Amino acid sequence: MISKLVMATNNANKLREAREILSPLGIEVLSQREAGADCEPDENGATFADNARIKAQAVYDIVKLPVIADDSGLCVDAMDGRPGVHSARYAPKGQECAKLLREMKDVPDGERTAAFRCTVCYIDENGEAILEGSCEGSISRSEAGENGFGYDPVFLVGDRTMAELSAEEKNRISHRGAALRELYRFLKERYGE
Length: 193
What we know:
Layout: E1 4-7, H1 12-22, E2 28-31, H2 48-63, E3 67-76, H3 96-103, E4 113-124, E5 127-139, E6 155-157, E7 160-161, H4 167-173, H5 175-190
Helix pairs in contact: 1-5, 4-5
């Protein structure tokens, strides 16, 4: 088993989630800053997989350690899958939910379905693996909850938003959690744990 890997991010929320899910394997997850990779690759891919690969490769080229990178976003059915791969750039930081609610104000309740999708790219000296996860839900009519970030306050899973779930509940069902669990299984299989 590998002893450490680098996550191509400095986002504390993403790091916490990866550390919690991968800790049973005894893998130390470092941020790219902790590993000495000071880069901001241009995420100009057409898909989540493209962007995850761009970030993972950029950090791997610097650190030469196993690297994971993710790209994820919200895909809203009534908006033809938007904001999708552009979720992070859909609105100014902190205004994503307000813009989404404005854009969807006339969409009836039964047509507000959406999914969070996440792709993780793992790269090491043996090549790469692409792992995916998703979480199905719908878009609420107002923001609720304090525990999430991004679109979590408007993404309903059952009768609660992602931002109303505990970290443990969210890890169990989240798109990133699902993709990281796929990564967990992949690493366990690859390294014969």
